[in-house]
Request: fold
Amino acid sequence: MQERHLKGNIITEEQVFFGTLSIADKRIARIEKQGEMRLDANWITPGFIDVHTHGIGPYGADVPQGPLGMATFAPPTGLTGVCPTLAADTPENLLAFTKEVRELVKSPNPQITKILGSHLEGPFIDFKHKGGMDERFVRGADLEEARRLLDAADGTLKLMTISPELDGAEAVISLMTQAGVTVSMGHTGCSKEQKDMAVAAGATQVCHLFDTFDGRRVEHGVSKPCLADCVLIDDRLQKELICDGIHVPQDLITLAHRVAGAEHLIAITDSLAGAGLPTGATFPMEGGRMMFMSDVARLVDNPECIVGSCLTMDKVFCNLITRFGFTPVEAAMMTATNPAKCCHEDHVRGLLKVGFFADIAVVSPEFDVLETILEGNTIYSR
Ligand SMILES: [Zn+2]
Reply:
């Protein structure tokens, strides 16, 4: 059997060291330590998994063929796994998206980023916390619609974001959890009690912590804990974090790091179509306006206005280590291991471990992706 050997700074579950990782027949066959980490060596890190992205390159999840386009454009960013994410939309569009992703999961293309399943961010979302969602499509929790979506997904719906304070949310959370869907609470202003109800019903995750969250109230000079505070100290919940330093300012990322710890954080991009295009590129938006892509997506005619994220996971990996003070082991945990857990893939991917799939990003010391490997197969090489 043909073996392949990669040399570099290998990031495992516990440590980073210089060594050789051997791949045989799709899987990691051996990992050998040969010394301490070297400053001039490439990173050998678990392939990145993004469980919350609405678009990559010119493709958005909200158009037919969009999820396939996202997975086709993703390999240069080191992404080996993705859950295309659709925000609140019409019942017909949600069903069509769910079915399209189901077909892509059931007949995978080994040459592109693996589509692990779908993420529905909504439509059962609190109107007051809808953020950038289209208000026409945000609606109350509907058990019948939830059942139809589960049927259409046939086991490929991985993640659903729900606001716990909605009437009927508890029943939908239970239904989803029992069907193996990870439930993420988000776009919410729920009370601590409602948060605990959602956890009791099966919710295990929080959608983009700090984004669309209300701040603390002050009563008679006393700060009351807000939902973000309660969530941060609740170790039953994994917290999604947009790691660009803009959607979540650096101090809040540090707060999440110190309070929740990397083991409870899932790095996401929450990116829109346009993510990964070169800085300065413009992109059409609904309403005919254009976006200017740099660190974030901005309106061309009003650059102060942020439209959304155009992060990619290779930038996230770089930001975590070079800007936000995470160790390489923590960065791998947040960009691969924890997202793999959230879509129940952690028994085969998300870690550099003998016997696991060889899903790997080879990243230069300058944090450029040099090669992306999915199940032992090179899907991108610079
Ligand atoms: Zn989103």
